[in-house]
Amino acid sequence: MPDATPAGSDPLFRLDGKTALIVGGYGGIGQVTCELFARHGAAVAIAGRSAEKARALAERLTASGFKSMGLRVDVKDKASVEECVASVVRQLGGLDIIVNLSSINNEGKAEELGAAEWQETIDINLTGAFFVSQSAARAMIAAGKGGRIIHFSSTRSEAGSARRGFAAYGASKAGLNLLIKQMGTEWARHKITVNGVAPGFVATELTHDGAMDPKFMNMMLNRIPLGRLGEPMEMAAPTLFLASPAASFITGQILFVDGGVLASS
Predict the structure, then answer these.
(1) I need a labelling partner for 89 at 20 to 30 A (CA). Which of 96, 113, 115, 248 fits?
(2) Helix or strand or coil: residue 20?
(3) For residue 239, which of 4, 44, 1 has the smallest C-alpha distance?
(4) pLDDT band, residue 4 (cuts 50/70/90)
């Protein structure tokens, strides 16, 4: 990871002087997002259910010369979210950007899915997203400087699958999309934008080195007009765009980053 962004980089995409809280920031896409934001000038707070993982990544960023901190948060617990946001404001001096990647997929056939699995999915993917948004917005409104709220959605918010059991996951992400539009509309008067990034099929450790069934991999690739999986950086870069000055007139939008899957469905 480079220690700095070249001095001549375009200020439209710089985050100098901004503080970003990235929830779920130590996962595959999250880690790349944290590193990208740091290289573009942001102080980065990394949060998730594992304080150990969050702090380990924060220490690596700090060792590379960036300002960072790691802390624990449980998005299902409103008090935990509020304390997380308060800690970031207290220790890093404010909160300008929040990126929420926290998500769970309790996959199962709709006729068999249990009540507990359904509720957990809704609690994390939808209710948790609301708690994160509300707490961040309150801090941003109090500071009076506006802000950016970005949630990770999914192509499953728009398209079902006959082969897999996405009832809870798809419903939670569809609800998140509407929530993004509603909050973007309400908080525009406070100069807070709210947007979503919706990935399609992304390359992870589960798809490399033959870890995934070849037949299923071929089925996925045949669904993607660009003919390949997305890379974590290709999800992080649009997130940086939505957090940057370049996206100052965009709110209430869901950006599908899926290689053309939805366009061809």
Answers:
(1) 248
(2) strand
(3) 44
(4) very low
Q: At the fourth CATH level, which superfamily is domain 11-260?
A: NAD(P)-binding Rossmann-like Domain (3.40.50.720)
d(CA 136, CA 173) in angstroms, rounded, equals: 20
Say how far apart CA 26 and CA 31 lie, in whole Å: 5
Residue 169 designated active-site: yes
Decide if 42 contacts 239 (C-beta within 8 A): no
Residue-wise pLDDT tens digits, 128-146:
999 999 999 999 999 999 9
Structural tokens at position 50: 């594992």
Spatial distance between the Cα atoms of 238 and 204, rounded to a whole number of angstroms:
18
Query: Which string of b and e fits 11-43 if b means at least 16 CB within 10 Å?
Result: eebbbeebbbbbbbbbbbbbbbbbbbbbbbbbb
The active-site residue out of 131, 152, 169, 256 is 169
147-195 residue pLDDT tens: 999 999 999 888 877 567 889 999 999 999 999 999 999 999 999 999 9
- Whole-angstrom distance, CA of residue 50 vs CA of residue 54: 6
| 8, pLDDT greater than 60 | no
Alpha-carbon dihedral angle through residues 41, 43, 48, 52, given to the nearest 10 degrees: 110
DSSP character string of 89-153: HHHHS---EEEE-------B-TTT--HHHHHHHHIIIIIHHHHHHHHHHHHHHHHTS-EEEEEE-
Rounded Cα distance, 38 and 195, in Å: 20
- Alpha-carbon distance of 194 to 183, in angstroms, equals 6
CA distance 12 to 172: 33
Residue 251 has which token pair? 């709110």
